[in-house]
Amino acid sequence: MERHAIAGEQILAPVEFLAGVRALVRHEHERWDGDGYPDRLAGESIPLGSRIILACDALHAMTSDRPHRAALSLEDAVAELRRHAGTQFDPRVVDALLAVLDESPMPALMDTEPTRS
Q1: What confidence tens digit (pLDDT) does each residue in 42-52 have?
Q2: Longest dimension (CA), the chain
Q3: In this structure, which of 13, 14, 72, 100 has its CB flanked by the most CB atoms within 10 Å?
Q4: Contact, 71 vs 64, CB < 8 A?
Q5: Residue 35 CA, distance from chain mean position
Q6: What are the residues whose beta carbons fall under 8 Å from the beta carbon of 87, sequence distance 6 or more?
Q7: What Å distances lie between residue 30 and 4, 40, 52, 77, CA to CA?
Q8: Is the dihedral of CA 81, 65, 34, 17 positive or negative?
């Protein structure tokens, strides 16, 4: 499971115009507290883009139906993001994401049923 971040980076390697994205893909699962993977980066050592992707991906995952559980409500997902800000997530990224949601709620959560993956 933890190798998929490295595999993603390797898949992008031959595509020259995506060179700047490779590090973002590799470090998407790093945690603010250093308990992530694949390189156990922490805090500001994690590329900002990776920190943003992690928070957005987590929000999407929590608000989408999964085979093993129903989607969380936006309110519950926001509570999870807040609870893990400073450990799993960069607290400033969580604040920024929540500010964006306050300005423009996620249309998929407002207008339709959660997507099935």
Answers
A1: 999 999 999 99
A2: 41
A3: 72
A4: yes
A5: 15
A6: 31, 32, 33, 35
A7: 13, 6, 11, 20
A8: negative
